[in-house]
Amino acid sequence: MSELNDFLKLMAEGKQKDPVAVKNREIKENIKEDLGDLFSQLSHLKAADPVAQKNKKLETTIKENVKEDFSSLFAELASLKNRKEEIIQENPQLVEEVLIETTPISTPIGEIPVSQQNPAIADLPNIDKYLKSPQFELPEVDESQREFQLINNKIKFLEQWIGKINNAGPGGGEVNLRYLDDVARETIADGRWLKYDAASKKFVFDEINPFEVVENTTEVTTSTYTVTPTDFYIGVNYAGPVTITLPSSANSGRMLIIKDEDGDAETNPITVLGTVDNDAGGFIIQINNGAIQLLYRNGWRIV
User: Is residue 90 part of a domain?
Assistant: First the structure.
């Protein structure tokens, strides 16, 4: 038995010293470290992701709204239940009276002529005094009983509403802008912008005129300038020749104004590079205080 143990011990020691086994262990350790670094980087990237942060903030806001809605509903339920208990304490017999179901009778039995009553009943002596006794009269429902019943109905409604909020959240669940109640769906069309109409108290889709948009102005103080997507008015204020490069394409209807603000374009011309009015050579502003207005539609056009 001891020889077998020695043999197994020698095999284990040999396996520990085996170059292949040692290499495999090193590979496993490296993979483990690499995976640890990878998961760590993924965790940092996820924490810095603006979409994830926005979703987390939105989720927090929804939870807070749901919490506030539940708090309001539970507070109202507590108030109603307290009022219910007060009514019960003021009217101990009220609970039993609510459980009694009564059926209105248009004509009390005692007022039916004896000739029209069942013969077996008509033969009974002094039947009228039994039919007119208090136990056959309809009970009068007082105001406290009515209020008690209304509170019961409202508590039931609130409990159902709490269940609805718990299942679907406080909102109606609509996620499409076009189906919201305060959007004028008949105005939706391609190429239109969303704006608020105070007269109808709704958001409408409409074509936007230039004066409705806040335009950007840019001052050029260098010898070269490339037009950016946000430029609208470009004022050149540089004591020397200036070259301005237009974008090769733009949104249809985009407007652009280039103006000599320095007032010396005759001496220091403003060269505009790009295809304008089908001319690939562009144009040159060489009039003091001169300006050009451009509009893009299938190319830049001078207007």
Answer: no
Q: Is the pLDDT of residue 275 over 90?
A: yes
Range of the domain at 116: 105-138
Shared domain check, 197 and 223: no
Give CB contacts under 8 A, 24+ apart, made by 80-83. 80/151, 80/154, 80/155, 80/158, 81/155, 83/151
Cβ-based neighbours of 80, under 8 Å, separated by 6 or more: 151, 154, 155, 158
Check pLDDT > 90 for residue 210: no
Domain count, the chain: 4
pLDDT above 80 (res 248) = yes
Q: For tokens 């029209």, what's the residue?
A: 116
Does the global pTM surpass 0.85? Answer: no
CA–CA separation, 11 and 32 (whole Å): 27
> What's the rounded mean pLDDT across residues 255-281?
95
* Residue 122 in domain: yes
Please tell me whether residues 227 and 286 are part of one structural domain.
Answer: yes
